[in-house]
Write a structure and sequence with these properties.
Blueprint lengths: L2 H22 L19 H12 L4 E5 L6 H12 L3 E5 L8 H15 L2 H10 L5 H7 L11 H11 L4 E6 L9 H11 L3 E7 L2 H7 L15 E3 L6 H14 L6 H11 L3 H12 L5 H24 L5 H12 L5 H12 L4 H13 L3 E4 L2 E4 L2 H10 L3
Helix pairs in contact: 2-3, 4-7, 5-7, 10-11, 10-12, 12-13, 13-17
The structure holds adenosine-5'-diphosphate and magnesium ion.
The site of magnesium ion has 3 residues, from helix 3.
Length: 386
């Protein structure tokens, strides 16, 4: 009988130990973008290259890649490790409707990471702010306004006296406020301010960078580029095994193979599957089903947001459906579009396809158009009917 409480105690101790070790060691299946190297599986090479560039302090760094391939995570880990003051803005959620508001918001974020002596100089130089208000500011108030580019340049000029990294996640959306001009200005004039841009909508990001357009502000500026890729099957295998090991759980080869087949190396979906298995105790089939359901809904909503900006929304939908059905080269797609929807010119079709490529919904490989995300394929299958 005496062993009963003992057993309970050791069992409790074991639970505490496991929970504690889960909490303390790296968590590969954490659903949020990672911010610690130990949580980021198999990206040491990219991370080290990024850090090396960040430590050079100046210039422009671009991280491009499909959605959910780890761009934000790599960026966050590198920024944390860089030991430099940095500002990271997710452009999709930044509170602004125009350029001035964005500059104001960004200046306030920058000021939060600068030394007090620099902040004090900035406040003195932004003339409309009285000195007494400037003193108050140090008690925590960020109550000042950037009225125009010139105020913003004042902030940058002072920030440039030390090091600073400005990182813009999903930066392609900054094209709406001509922020490329500001980045070109930083590139040319402020050697101690590094800029990092990420983007899932690769074509749009390249446009923003002025690719092939000598009128664009960033045209011709050299930048360092990183591209996290989908995991290959071996890497996915190792990732899932390592993640399960952290929870003292095992995953079978058959299960891993099925995950690879369903989610095709997109680490975001693999992570979510692992989270459901290990954190939410779902069984294999349930976890597969939930990732497929939620993932296809998420991926389709992203496509839907794109459609909402298009007049020819129906044509884009049908086009995606055709690609989903395996019509992958130009002539097949053109033939089917003509057959099903009547007239469509080559230039129109080119424009639609280019747009889908630009926004990262479709990839082109060996003259074939393919949908990039396995769960977007599911989303298209469910939501678009002929
Ligand atoms: N190398 C990695 N190891 C572990 N988890 C990762 C890795 N890369 C990405 N993730 C996970 O995948 C998901 C998507 O990552 P994220 O960095 O947001 O991708 P992106 O910015 O390209 O959309 C997140 O849950 C993140 O934690
Ligand atoms: Mg991201």
């Amino acid at each position: 009988m005496a062993s009963y409480p003992l057993e309970v105690t050791s069992c409790v101790a074991e639970v505490i130990f496991i929970s504690l070790s889960i909490y303390l060691v790296c968590m590969l299946f954490d659903k949020r973008p990672k911010s610690k190297r130990k949580d980021l599986f198999g990206e040491d090479y990219l991370l080290d290259s990024l850090l090396k560039q960040l430590n050079k302090k100046s210039g422009l760094i671009v991280i491009k890649g499909l959605r959910r391939t780890g761009k934000t995570s790599i960026l966050k880990v590198a920024l944390e490790e860089s030991n430099m003051p940095y500002v990271l803005i997710d452009v999709r959620y930044a509170p602004y409707t125009d350029r001035r508001q964005f500059l104001d918001f960004l200046a306030k974020e920058i000021i939060k990471v600068l030394d007090k002596d620099i902040v004090s100089k900035i406040i003195k130089k932004i003339s409309r702010v009285s000195l007494s208000l400037g003193k108050e500011y140090f008690k925590g108030s960020l109550d000042f306004d950037i009225k125009d580019d010139s105020d913003f340049l004042t902030v940058l000029r002072e920030a440039n006296k030390k090091n600073l990294i400005l990182a813009f996640d999903e930066a392609q959306y900054l094209s709406g406020i001509n922020f490329d001009m500001i980045i070109a200005g930083i590139y040319d004039n402020f050697p101690n301010i590094g800029v990092v841009l990420t983007g899932s909508e690769i074509g749009l990001l390249e446009d923003f960078l002025g690719k092939g357009n000598d009128k664009a502000p960033l045209y011709g500026r050299l930048y360092f580029e990183l591209k996290p890729e989908r995991f290959d099957p071996e890497r996915t295998f190792a990732f899932l095994e390592a993640g399960f090991k952290q929870y003292n759980q095992k995953i079978s080869k058959e299960e891993i193979n099925q995950v690879i087949e369903e989610f095709d190396g997109v680490v975001g979906w693999h992570t979510y599957y692992g989270y459901l298995r290990c954190d939410e105790n779902k069984n294999h089939l349930n976890a597969l089903k939930i990732v497929a359901e939620i993932g296809s809904r998420t991926a389709y909503e992203e496509f839907e947001r794109f459609l909402n900006t298009k007049k020819s929304r129906e044509r884009y939908q049908k086009l995606m459906k055709l690609i989903m059905l395996g019509k992958s080269n130009w002539s097949q797609i053109k033939k089917e579009m003509l057959l099903r929807f009547g007239k469509i010119s080559d230039s129109q079709l080119s424009k639609y396809l280019k747009d889908l490529l630009y926004h990262g919904f479709v990839e082109k490989s060996n003259e074939k158009y393919l949908i990039t995300d396995p769960l977007l394929i599911k989303g298209i299958e469910q939501n678009i009917k002929f």
